Amino acid sequence: MVGICGALGDYAALPPEFTESVSHRDEETRITVEESEFTLHGSFHSVLAGEQPATAADGDVRIWVWGDVYGYDSGSEHVARSNGRGGSADFCARLYDAFGMEFVAGLNGDYALVVHDAVEETLSFVTDRLATRPVFYARPDDDTFVFSSASQTLTTYPGVDATFDLPYLYEYLQLRRVFGVKTPLAGIEELPPASVVTVDLEDLSTETWTYWTPSYEPVDKPFSAYLDEFVDTVTEVLEEWTDDDLDYGLLLSGGSDSRLIQAAMDQPMTTFHNADFMSREARVARRAATVSGDEFRLLERDEKYDARLLEETPPLSNFSGWFDQAYFSGFEAEIVEEVDVLVAGLYADMLFGGNPLATYAFSVGDVGTLSLPIRRPVDSIEDYIDLQTKDAIEPLPYFDSSLSLKSVLRSNIRRDGDGVVSHGVRYGSLQDLVMYGDFYPMGGDTDAIFSRTLMQMRPYRTPFLDNRLLELAQKIPVRYLLRRNLVDAAVTELDPGLASIPHARTGVPLKHPFAVSYLGDNVYGLWRKHVADESPPEPHLTHTPWPNRQELVRAKSFTEETLSDRRQLLEDFEFFDFDGAMRCYDDHLNGINNQTVLYSLLTILNMPATRRAHTALTRSTSSTDSVATDGVTDTPTGVTSDE
User: Fold this and answer.
1) Residue range of the domain that includes 425
2) 27 Cβ neighbours under 8 A, 6+ residues apart
3) Structural domains in the chain (count)
4) pLDDT digit string (tens) for 244-295?
């Protein structure tokens, strides 16, 4: 595991579990800085680490970088970092000497920075535009500030109680994420995206400067103009990234996003596809690898793969996604053995496919549901809340019935002048919240654990989060996002051979117009469902990369086993209900779809922070029982609530 952690002020010795949370393999480069005012521990991939810290301002400023800085945007041009792999810290130091702390506004990359100014006696934390590398913090007392890239680890620090903030825990259970900078752990928040949080080392007061916010400002230009810019930018980004001396691995699906990387990247790659058998999508991915001349690796899950993920991945969670969305973690050894750098096509659909936009759909009875590529308006905060809560299961059978998802969201989303504040993060407008609230910051994404576990294995990149593509996405009109396919068109332009291969979902080659793909997505999908004889080997298996979770819960015993193993925990926390959890599971077995809230619960139950909260609760209860006074006790440790 890679990351950073430490403490400022009058701090105690950091527990071993605290510092060990940001180190994993012997080959990682570790740093330790211990001074009277702060301590910093870090573990970095050796390819990216370089010499750290880098110094600026004649030695008065030191800079550490977790991650990778790609370049700098001066306002008139993008200057790629050209000082070799591992040169991010030195690049930042030179920019600091030229522009002062304002240099961060032009940084492009996937990083978190720590900047120590000895003259000003400050320590600053800098997050990239989307906080792709999160940093969490807590204030156990007025004299201490502790931080870590692993939120659960903060509960091991003396004075940071392992307790839950119930509204945010409820939000996670329903949505598999918590928006903004909030977490379900009481007193623990994430540093905001695209921000510099400066801590005064004398009194631990903080100042926050947010240097960028996403703003949707579409520009009416021909689709061909956007296509040209998109193709040129993707190609430029990948050309800057690649190094002939490194081996690259691509997570290859049967769709188009990863295929675009194949088309644009002038570098041989080992491609990895995760599946339970040689499914339809796996066959399409293998065909794409063959056409591109890339090596294909099928990472085939066995029958116990998901059960192992349930045991192994919850400690990695920062409350954004389920345990099984660390999809490739079970194949870490194979991937690390094969490649130096991982590349994926993640977030293309979020930025260029209109995924955040609500659209119309209508039911055709037993045949299924047909979607329409027409935007459904979201004109008020209440509309937005309705959109987020449309699939909520309420009352939640196993949780405190006094809470509702709408009430939690209403208490955390408000107007602020012309803008909107959601969960501690400000957006310039309601439209910006709709467009970008799912990934600004990245913890708002429902499967951020996917990309965050990839970056633990190897240096990891997805070109679509490069600043130049983020800025392009903010200009594209809705009609192109919903009724054209920029990625398919780009693959067609760059590599007609790859574009001639059908998309695994639609059955239509990428080279065809959007209307044909749209019909394929709906009509062909229904044909496969109701006519074609493509039954997978088992009901819980699918022809997509991931299993059918609804059927997996019914087919495998890990849900019931986990609920039984954690029975005491579910009974001891007053906000949980063991009988309700078993009822939720039984209802699912009998045909009601409770998979979403069951997977969220399973993830929470196997988190170390939950076990620590339970231990604290039982100790508190035992202590209270021994000194009971007239039957009156305080609220047990492990519970806080705003409601």
Assistant:
1) 359-436
2) 46
3) 3
4) 999 999 999 999 999 999 999 999 999 999 999 999 999 999 999 999 999 9
